[in-house]
């Protein structure tokens, strides 16, 4: 029973593995030659820049073309290092790495070497540990065992305090450079992988973008390989990470370009069971019906042939519109001259014009679905052209024109007639299979006037394309310009390989004169007439008598005031010549004068600008005057009370 259970478990495990492999999706793109050329341009610009980091990453991917260029780069390298504001351990790492890669003849300053050799303890970040250890590696200097053990303990302590994605990424990259005692870092791989974010179900990435994602992937793959651990990702995760990296191939910095290439190399270095591959259609996916040969490319993420050339490649051909199957198992054969190209001949299945899809299966491990189309050819079965009276009851004499000839005689039509064209389009190689195309136009062109008019030919219920034009009713489209016009039939469709323009006939069209107005021909790019702004005309004023009466009514309260003052008498005994008294009355009078001027000529904004200082002055003087009057009355009242008491 135990043996039977083990056998069943093993069978289920193998079956599950087979199903998982069979459902692995292949990516639909790779790092193409154009992408690599563009990235090489990024590296070339980086090595010629004054940025220390850019020079370092560029030196890892391109070499100077001459000794003179190498000398200039090396001299510039030391200058930008001195001017760099990066941390000492980071810029020393860039300097040492670039100098060794470029094989600079200059000796490294002793101060820099001392900074590298003297490793301070403890180090507070995994990034610093990585830079210092890798700098020793570039120099070819072996760190003593005692220091390595301290660094391992230091690394363990840092990860206990700081376990961010960046910290883990640098730890993965440096652990195998220390000692076998740093194997504990491999236990943190799963902690990092579970933090990957999925995008649209097709991509995986880490928070922080390309730099963090590449740092973790390359480091996890490296440490897993060095410590003989299982790969950190499964086939589906590798596929999704590959999709993310390929979506970032438009990077513009040397660092981004370098870590992108390194990440794709790491994914391509997986075992054939896990490494993502690219299955891509070659060409534009348009096949001729008489020779339908479908070509695909099967490469790794860098566009190179696979380590193990695929042997069993089959495809299932589907009609996209109908959803039916045309062929169940179409075999792809390798092209002898190219290890990445595989061909399938669809001729035995006799595909007709239309849209297709093929589901490709490679070694029962990878699958990809690509779309393609079979192009057909159109043939003019019959074309009839005629001119008749606009009256529908009258018959039209039609002439048959054979494709691709032009009617030898010139036709004439005036504004009382109409032009009728009928054309039947069929698929070439058949006798009665009509075709519906996306574009069917009738074009009229007058060479003398350089005038072009295009109409749409509509398909009727019998699948015949028909064009019927009333010459008089369409005169406006031709700008009432009579003359000789070329009549051209235009037929086009995305699924046709022989779309055409056919000069059917020459027509002399006679339009009526434009009774509305003569059409003024104005150049398209002429100077437009000047626009002169006109204000609204002022409204008519009322009669002088009405204005005088209204003014008199407004002055009536003032006249009544003076009359009342005259009868009652004006008491000016309390008027003094104090500055506040004189200032208040002058300010008040000024306000009245300002209102009078506002009535006559000023606008509101001008009046407010002048009123502000006058009103402020009047307010201050009035406040002072009222305080003085109040003090005077208070003193007078107290004196009167004292006299009454005595």
From TrEMBL:
Top-level taxon of origin: Eukaryota
Domain (Ribophorin II third) ranges: 382-509
A GO biological-process term: protein N-linked glycosylation
Keywords: Endoplasmic reticulum, Membrane, Signal, Transmembrane, Transmembrane helix
InterPro entries: Ribophorin_II_2nd, Ribophorin_II_3rd, Ribophorin_II_C, Ribophorin_II_N, Swp1
Entry's Gene Ontology cellular component terms: oligosaccharyltransferase complex
Location of the Ribophorin II second domain: 277-370
Family: Belongs to the SWP1 family.
Protein name from the UniProt record: Dolichyl-diphosphooligosaccharide--protein glycosyltransferase subunit 2
Organism: Glossina fuscipes
Name of the gene this protein is made from: LOC119636630
């Amino acid at each position: 029973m135990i043996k039977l259970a083990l056998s069943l478990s093993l069978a289920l495990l193998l079956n599950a593995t087979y199903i998982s492999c069979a459902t692995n999706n292949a990516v639909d793109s790779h790092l193409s030659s154009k992408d690599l050329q563009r990235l090489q341009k990024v590296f070339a610009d980086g090595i010629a820049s004054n940025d220390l980091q850019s020079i370092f990453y560029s030196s890892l991917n391109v070499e100077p073309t001459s000794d003179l260029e190498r000398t200039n780069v090396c001299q510039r390298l030391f200058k930008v290092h001195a001017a760099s504001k990066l941390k000492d351990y980071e810029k020393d790492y860039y300097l040492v790495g670039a100098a060794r890669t470029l094989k600079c003849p200059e000796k490294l300053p002793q101060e820099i070497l001392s900074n590298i050799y003297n490793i301070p303890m403890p180090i507070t970040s995994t990034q610093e540990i990585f830079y210092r250890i890798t700098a020793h590696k570039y120099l070819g200097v072996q760190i003593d065992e005692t220091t390595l053990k301290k660094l391992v303990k230091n690394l363990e302590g840092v990860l206990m305090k700081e376990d961010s994605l960046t910290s883990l990424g640098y730890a993965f990259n440096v652990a195998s450079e220390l000692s076998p005692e740093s194997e504990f870092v491999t236990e943190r791989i799963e902690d990092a992988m579970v933090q990957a974010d999925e995008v649209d179900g097709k991509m995986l990435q880490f928070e922080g973008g390309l730099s963090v994602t590449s740092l973790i992937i390359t480091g996890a793959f490296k440490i897993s390989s060095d410590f003989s651990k299982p790969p950190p990702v499964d086939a589906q995760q590798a596929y999704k990470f590959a999709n993310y990296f390929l979506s970032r191939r438009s990077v513009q910095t040397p660092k981004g370009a370098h870590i992108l290439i390194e990440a794709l190399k790491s994914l391509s270095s997986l075992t054939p069971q896990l490494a993502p591959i690219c299955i891509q259609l070659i060409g534009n996916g348009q096949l001729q019906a008489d020779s339908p040969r479908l070509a695909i490319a099967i490469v790794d993420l860098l566009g190179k042939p696979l380590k193990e050339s695929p042997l069993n490649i089959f495809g299932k051909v589907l009609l996209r519109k109908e959803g039916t199957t045309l062929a169940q198992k179409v075999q792809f054969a390798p092209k002898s001259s190219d290890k990445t190209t595989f061909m399938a001949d669809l001729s035995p299945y006799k595909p007709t014009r239309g849209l297709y899809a093929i589901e490709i299966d490679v070694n029962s491990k990878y699958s990809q679905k690509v779309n393609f189309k079979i192009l057909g050819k159109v043939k003019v079965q019959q074309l009839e052209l005629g001119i008749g009276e606009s009256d529908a009851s009258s018959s039209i004499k039609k002439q048959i024109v054979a494709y691709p000839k032009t009617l030898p005689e010139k036709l004439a039509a005036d504004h009382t007639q109409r032009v009728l064209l009928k054309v039947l389009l069929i698929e070439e190689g058949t006798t009665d299979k009509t075709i519906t195309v996306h574009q069917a136009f009738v074009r009229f062109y007058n060479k003398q006037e350089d005038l072009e008019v295009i109409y749409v030919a509509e398909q009727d219920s019998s699948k015949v394309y028909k064009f019927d034009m009333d010459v008089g009713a369409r005169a406006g489209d031709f700008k009432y310009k009579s003359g000789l016009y070329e009549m051209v039939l235009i037929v086009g469709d995305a699924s046709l390989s022989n779309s055409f323009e056919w000069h059917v006939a020459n027509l002399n069209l006679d339009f009526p004169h434009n009774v509305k107005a003569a059409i003024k021909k104005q150049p398209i790019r002429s100077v437009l007439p000047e626009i002169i702004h006109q204000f609204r005309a002022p409204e008519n004023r009322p009669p002088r008598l009405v204005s005088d009466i209204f003014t008199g009514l407004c002055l009536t309260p003032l006249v009544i005031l003076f009359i009342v003052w005259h009868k009652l008498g004006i008491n000016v005994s309390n008027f003094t010549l104090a500055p506040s008294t004189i200032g208040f009355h002058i300010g008040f009078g000024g306000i009245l004068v300002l209102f009078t001027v506002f009535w006559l000529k000023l606008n509101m904004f001008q009046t407010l600008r002048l009123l502000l200082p006058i009103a402020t002055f009047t307010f201050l003087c009035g406040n002072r005057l009222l305080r003085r009057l109040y003090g005077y009355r208070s003193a007078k009242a107290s004196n009167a009370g004292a006299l009454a008491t005595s």
